[in-house]
Write a structure and sequence with these properties.
single chain; 1058 residues; alpha/beta; 9-stranded mixed beta sheet; 40 helices
Length: 1058
C-alpha cells in the first residue's frame, strides 16, 4: 500500500472504530449521533459504488476467545460489542490478514466500477454512431436538400408541458363555452375504441393497487381512461381488454368475462344505447388457474390476440346491428398500454387493419440501462429475471405499428424513447417537415409523439379547509360527519396525531425510494419534532406471503423505524381500500401536511395530481414527470432523490413555513383543472382524429353494394378475387415489380379489382366448409424437404381428406411459381390445398377447381390489408445498398461475385416481398442486425431469414404467415380453434408465430437442423422466452415420424378419434 497513505488512513479508521453504524452518512451521523461508519463512508463517498459485501469482509463472524463462541454481526451488537471489537483488532496477525483482504476487495471493487463505466461509455458511443450513420443514410436517400423546417423547430403536433408559458403550450379548453362548442362538433359520431392492458388485476371498483408490482398506477389509469372516454360526446363504446384470472389466489371478480364500468360523470354522456358505455372484457389466456407475473405472459400473447380478435369481430357485428345500419362498426383505434399490450395491439392492428396507439408507461431500455449501471447482474441474468429483451422487442414492434405514441411527459420522449432503434427525434423532425411540405419521405415513417398528461375527475373532490379540531372556515351549523375508518387506522400509530402528516403512497419497491425517505425523516430531529410520517405501502396480510422484493423492502423500512426509534411518529397500516385513498389525502390536508414522491425516476406521478386536488403541497423527485407537473401546478418543491439531506430540507421547509404551505396549496387548487379527464379525453380524441381511417378493404364497398342479401354478404363471396393464368408471370408472384411502372398503379389495381364475369366463382372458399384446417408450415431449404412431409400428413388423414372434412393450407417462404412447379412435378393436384400463404406471408392464393389452366385465384384485398407503412421502392433500394456492403473480405478480390455474401433475387422479388439470396450463411449478419438497421433508418418492415438461412424475405411489418391465418379468420370466418399447424423442431425466424394462439400445433421431431437453430441463436431474445412449453395445444411426434405417428399425435389433440 506504499504511496497510498490516504487509503491507509481510511482503512486504519475502519479497523480502529469497528463496525460502527453501517448504513449512515458521515455528516448526518456526526451531527446527530457523534459517530459514523468509515467503511460505508469510504465505499459511498470515496469509491462511489455500492458493494455491501465489502463491509462483511471486516465484520464476518470470528472466534472470540472471551465469549468462546462464534459471533455473528447481529449477536455482536446484542452481546458484547466492545469486547468483541477489542479481541478482533488486538492480534496484529488478525489485523494484517483483514487489512490485506479488504485491500484486495477494494481493488477489485474499483476495477469493477471502472469496467462498468467503460462498458456504459462504449454502449452510448456505439448507439450514437449507429444512430448518426442511419440518419445520414436516410437523409442521403431522400433526394431533396434539407429545408429550414427540417433543421429547426419541434413539431407543431407535439404538445408539451414545458416552457415558461405553459398554458400557451397546452391545447386546453379554457371555458364551458369552448367545451360545448367542441361537444357539438362531435354529435353524430359513434366511435368504438379498444384499450388493452394485460398484466395485473383489473376491476372497476375497489382496485387492489399495490397488491403486487403488476397492479399499480397503470391499472387505475386505464380503468379511469376507459370510463372517461365512454362519457365523451361522439364515443359510443369503449372496451378495455385484459386477462381473465380464475384462480383461488385472487378474488372471483377477476374471473368474470365482462364488467360494465359505471360513469363517474354523466353530464357529458350523449346517449345511452343497448351496448354503449365502457366495459372491462376479460379474455382467457395463459394458465387457466394461475395468476402469473407479466414476465411470464409473453408465451401466451398469441392466445390473447386470437381471443381478442374474436371478441372485436363479434362486437363489431353487434354494434353494426344497433348503430351501423347492418354493417359492422369497426374500431377507430386500438390502444396498447405497456410492452405486452403494445405487442398485442400491433398484431391486432395488423389483423384488423385499424390505427394503433401506444403508451409505454415504463420502458424496458431505460430499465436495462439502470440495471447494467448498478453492476449487480449481467445482461443475461437481467433477461432471465425480467425477460427484458422480449419486452424491448415488444416496444420496438409497437413503434413500428403505432400511428401515435402517447406519453405523460416530454422527458419520456427526450430521455427514454430516444434510446430505441425505432425512434430518432432528429430524423422525426426531418420527416415531419417533409410531410408538411408534401415531399416524399421515400418509404420512411415515424410515429407521432403526443404529450397528454393523465387526467383525473375532480367534481367529487371538496378540499378540506378545517383543522384537526374539526372546525371549518365557513362556520357551518350542521353536524360534522364522522371520521372515516381509515383515519382511525392511521392515527392509532401516532403519539401526537395533530402534527402535520408527511404522506407517501407507493408500493414497497426499491425504485420508489421509501427507505431513503425514512432515513431522512429519522435523521432530521427538527422534522421529527414538527411532523408525522405516513407510509401507505399497498395491502398485506403476512410479510412472509409477499414477493421477495416487497418483503425485503418492507422489512428494511421496519428495521429503519426501529433503529431511529420512530415509534409513535410513523404509520404504516396493513390494509386500505381504493375508496379510502381520497380520505387519506383529506387527512393529510386537514393536518396541513405534505405529499411526497421520492422515487428515483417517476414516469409521470398521478398521485401528485390527486394530492394537489385535495389541497396538499408536494415534494417530488426531479427525475421524470413531476418536473412537468410542478411547472404547471407550481405547488411544491423538487428534490434530488439520491440526496437524503435535500429530502429532509424540502419537507422541513414546507412544514415549518405556513405561508409557503398556503401559497403552494392555493396554486395547486387554482391550476388543477388543467389535468381533468375531460381535457385529457378531448386531446386524446383529437389525436385519433388525425389518424388516417383504416379498415378491411372489402368493408369499404359494403354500403354502396345493393346486390347483397342477408345470406350473400360482401365477406361471403369471391367477387374481389381474380382468376390468374399461370402463363402470366404476375400470377406467380402476386404482382411482379416489372409489370407496373409505378407501385401506385399496382396498388390502385389491387384495391379496385375487376372480376371476370364469364366465370362463376363459389360464394366462399372451400376452407369455410371444413371441420378442421391443417396448416403445413414446415420450413426446409428446398421443396423436397417440404413435400416429403406433406405426403406423410396427407397419408395420415387420407380418409378424412377424401371425405372433404379436412382442408389444407400450405404456408411457406416460397414463391407461388416455385410451389406450382413442384406440384406439377410431383403430380399433386393444387385443389388438394384450399389456400397458399406464400413469400413468408406477403401473398395469399386460393385454389380454383373450375379450370385446370387457372388453378389459383389471388386475394387482391390482402395486399391492401398489409400495405400499411410499407416502404416500397425506397425500402428496396436501401436493402440493395445494404446487400452490396456485405462482402467476404477473404474471397478473391478479382472475382466480385465471390465477394458478395448477399444478393437480390430479382426473379422472386415482388411488390410486397423483397427477396435476397445468402450465398455464405456463416458470413451473413444475424436477423436482428438487419431489422435494427431498417428501424434506425425509419423503414418499417418484417425481416425473415428463411430456407435454412439461405434466403431473406423482407415483407410489410403487419404481414407474416401467422397473421395470414388471422386474416383468413377475419375474411372468411375460418375458426382458429379448428386449425392444426404442422411445424418442425425449428424453422424460419418467424417460426414462433405458429407455436401459440388458440389453434393446435404438431411438432415433427427430427425436422429442422443445426443451421436453422443457429438462426434462432442470433435472435434479439431467446426463443425459449416465448414458447408455451406447457400448452395442452402442442404435441410432439417421435423422431423421424411416420404417418401413423402423426395420426397418433392428432388423436392426442382430440382432432381425430383414432
Amino acid at each position: 500500500m506504499a504511496g497510498n497513505d490516504w487509503i491507509n488512513s481510511y482503512l486504519d479508521a475502519i479497523l480502529d472504530v469497528g463496525p460502527g453504524l453501517d448504513d449512515a452518512k458521515s455528516s448526518l451521523l456526526l451531527r446527530e449521533r457523534g459517530r459514523f461508519s468509515p467503511t460505508r463512508y469510504f465505499v459511498d463517498n470515496v469509491i462511489g459504488f455500492d458493494e455491501t459485501d465489502l463491509h462483511r469482509s471486516w465484520v464476518k463472524p470470528v472466534y472470540c476467545p472471551v465469549l468462546l463462541t462464534p459471533v455473528t454481526s447481529f449477536e455482536r451488537v446484542e452481546l458484547n460489542r466492545d469486547v468483541y471489537c477489542a479481541q478482533a483488532t488486538r492480534s496484529p496477525q488478525e489485523r494484517n490478514t483483514r487489512l490485506e483482504n479488504m485491500c484486495w476487495r477494494i481493488w477489485n471493487l474499483a476495477r469493477q466500477k471502472k469496467q462498468l463505466e467503460n462498458e456504459e461509455a462504449h454502449r452510448v458511443a456505439k448507439r450514437r454512431i449507429e444512430r448518426e450513420k442511419g440518419r445520414n443514410l436516410a437523409v442521403a436517400d431522400m433526394s431533396e436538400d434539407l429545408s429550414e423546417g427540417e433543421k429547426g423547430e419541434t413539431m407543431n403536433d407535439v404538445s408539451t408541458l414545458g416552457g415558461d408559458s405553459h398554458r400557451g403550450r397546452l391545447p386546453r379548453m379554457s371555458s364551458v363555452v369552448a367545451m360545448e362548442t367542441w361537444a357539438n362538433q362531435q354529435k353524430g359520431k359513434k366511435l368504438y375504441l379498444i384499450l388493452i392492458s394485460l398484466h395485473g388485476l383489473i376491476r372497476g371498483e375497489n382496485m387492489e393497487l399495490g397488491r403486487d408490482s403488476d397492479t399499480g398506477g397503470q391499472i387505475k389509469y386505464v380503468v379511469e381512461l376507459a370510463r372517461a372516454l365512454a362519457s365523451m360526446p361522439g364515443v359510443y363504446r369503449v372496451d378495455l381488454l385484459t386477462r381473465q384470472v380464475a384462480s383461488p389466489e385472487v378474488d372471483w371478480s377477476y374471473g368474470e368475462p365482462t364488467e360494465m364500468l359505471s360513469p363517474r360523470n354523466s353530464e357529458m354522456t350523449e346517449e345511452i344505447g343497448e351496448s354503449s358505455g365502457a366495459y372491462i372484457i376479460r379474455i382467457p389466456f395463459g394458465p387457466k388457474d394461475k395468476y402469473i407475473p407479466k414476465e411470464l405472459l409473453w408465451p401466451h400473447i398469441p392466445e390473447f390476440v386470437d381471443g381478442a380478435l374474436g371478441h372485436i369481430i363479434q362486437m363489431s357485428k353487434v354494434l353494426g346491428e344497433q348503430i351501423g345500419g347492418g354493417y359492422p362498426v369497426w374500431p377507430v383505434a386500438i390502444h396498447g398500454h405497456y410492452a405486452d399490450a403494445g405487442d398485442s395491439a400491433a398484431r391486432l392492428s395488423g389483423a384488423l387493419n385499424v390505427p394503433m396507439l401506444f403508451t409505454g408507461h415504463s420502458l424496458g431500455r431505460d430499465k436495462l440501462e439502470q440495471l447494467l449501471r448498478q453492476g449487480r447482474l449481467t445482461k443475461d441474468e437481467i433477461n432471465t429475471t425480467y425477460k427484458i429483451m422480449r419486452r424491448i422487442e415488444g416496444e420496438e414492434s409497437s413503434l413500428d405499428s403505432s400511428e401515435v405514441v402517447i406519453t405523460s411527459t416530454r422527458q419520456e420522449i427526450d430521455e427514454q424513447w430516444r434510446l430505441y432503434d425505432g425512434f430518432d427525434p432528429v430524423l422525426e423532425k426531418k420527416l415531419r417537415a417533409r410531410i408538411r411540405r408534401n415531399v416524399s419521405c421515400y418509404g420512411r415513417f415515424m410515429p407521432r409523439m403526443a404529450v397528454i398528461p393523465p387526467g383525473m375527475e375532480f367534481n367529487h373532490i371538496v378540499p378540506h379547509d378545517g383543522d384537526m379540531d374539526g372546525e371549518n372556515k365557513g362556520g357551518d351549523d350542521h353536524q360534522p360527519s364522522p371520521d372515516p375508518p381509515i383515519w382511525t387506522e392511521i392515527m392509532r400509530f401516532f403519539t401526537n396525531p395533530r402534527k402535520p402528516m408527511i404522506l407517501a403512497l407507493a408500493r414497497p419497491d426499491p425504485k420508489k425510494n421509501l427507505l431513503t425517505l425514512v432515513k431522512a425523516f429519522g435523521e432530521c430531529r427538527p422534522l421529527r419534532e414538527l411532523a408525522n410520517l405516513t407510509l401507505i405501502m399497498g395491502n398485506r396480510d403476512n410479510i412472509d406471503e409477499m414477493s421477495s422484493t416487497s418483503a425485503s423492502m418492507l422489512l428494511s423500512i421496519i428495521k429503519m423505524i426501529d433503529k431511529y426509534d420512530l415509534y409513535g411518529q410513523v404509520a404504516y397500516p396493513k390494509h386500505h381500500k381504493q375508496s379510502d385513498v381520497p380520505d387519506i389525502y383529506r387527512l393529510a390536508a386537514k393536518t396541513k401536511g405534505v405529499f411526497i414522491n421520492p422515487a428515483f425516476i417517476e414516469p409521470f406521478g398521478l398521485t401528485l395530481i390527486e394530492a394537489a386536488a385535495h389541497g396538499l403541497p408536494m415534494v417530488a423527485t426531479k427525475n421524470g414527470g413531476p418536473v412537468d407537473i410542478h411547472r404547471v401546478l407550481d405547488n411544491g418543491l423538487l428534490i434530488d432523490p439520491h440526496d437524503q439531506q435535500s429530502i429532509a430540507d424540502a419537507l422541513l421547509k414546507l412544514v415549518a413555513d405556513k405561508q409557503l404551505w398556503s401559497k403552494c396549496r392555493s396554486n395547486g387548487l387554482r391550476n388543477i383543472h388543467l389535468f381533468s379527464w375531460t381535457e385529457h379525453c378531448k386531446t386524446y380524441l383529437s389525436r385519433i382524429a388525425t389518424c388516417k381511417p383504416r379498415q378491411p378493404g372489402w368493408l369499404k364497398h359494403s354500403e354502396s353494394d345493393d346486390e347483397n342479401s342477408e345470406s350473400d354478404s360482401p365477406s361471403d363471396s369471391l367477387r374481389d378475387m381474380q382468376d390468374i393464368s399461370l402463363n402470366l408471370k404476375f400470377s406467380m408472384d402476386g404482382g411482379e415489380r416489372g409489370n407496373s411502372s409505378k407501385p401506385e398503379d399496382q396498388n390502385s389495381k389491387l384495391q379496385t379489382p375487376t372480376p371476370n364475369p364469364q366465370q362463376q366463382q363459389p360464394k366462399f372458399p372451400a376452407l369455410r366448409r371444413r371441420t378442421h384446417i391443417f396448416v403445413i408450415a414446415i420450413d426446409a431449404d428446398d421443396t423436397e424437404g417440404i413435400f416429403g412431409n406433406v405426403k406423410k400428413i396427407f397419408d395420415a388423414v387420407n380418409k378424412e381428406k377424401t371425405e372433404g372434412s379436412i382442408g389444407f393450407i400450405l404456408a411457406t417462404s416460397l414463391q407461388m411459381a416455385e410451389i406450382h412447379s413442384f406440384l406439377v412435378k410431383k403430380g399433386v393436384n393444387p385443389s388438394d390445398f384450399d389456400a397458399f400463404i406464400c413469400n413468408s406471408g406477403a401473398d395469399l392464393y386460393y385454389s380454383s377447381s373450375h379450370s385446370e389452366d387457372n388453378p389459383f385465384v389471388f386475394d387482391l384485398y390482402y395486399h391492401s390489408h398489409i400495405e400499411y407503412r410499407w416502404g416500397g421502392e425506397g425500402l428496396r433500394k436501401t436493402l440493395v445498398k445494404w446487400a452490396g456492403s456485405i462482402i467476404d473480405k477473404n474471397a478473391d478480390s478479382k472475382n466480385k461475385n465471390e465477394q458478395h455474401v448477399v444478393t437480390e433475387d430479382e426473379e422472386v422479388t415482388t411488390n410486397y416481398c423483397y427477396a435476397f439470396n445468402i450465398h455464405k450463411p456463416g458470413l451473413a449478419p444475424p436477423v436482428r442486425e438487419l431489422q435494427k438497421l431498417m428501424r434506425i433508418q425509419a423503414l418499417r418492415c418484417h425481416v425473415i431469414y428463411c430456407q435454412n438461412g439461405r434466403k431473406i424475405n423482407v415483407i410489410p411489418v403487419s404481414a407474416s404467415r401467422s397473421q395470414a391465418l388471422r386474416y383468413l379468420y377475419l375474411r372468411w370466418g375460418m375458426e382458429l380453434t379448428k386449425v392444426v399447424v404442422f411445424v418442425g423442431e425449428s424453422g424460419d425466424t418467424d417460426y414462433e408465430g405458429f407455436l401459440g394462439g388458440v389453434h393446435k400445433a404438431v411438432i415433427l421431431k427430427g425436422v429442422g437442423n443445426s443451421n436453422t437453430n443457429q438462426l434462432h441463436a442470433n435472435r434479439v431474445y431467446p426463443l425459449s422466452d416465448v414458447l408455451p412449453t406447457d400448452s395442452v395445444n402442442i404435441v410432439e411426434t417421435r423422431e423421424e415420424c411416420s404417418s401413423d405417428d402423426i395420426r397418433a399425435s392428432l388423436g392426442k389433440l382430440g382432432v381425430l378419434k383414432g
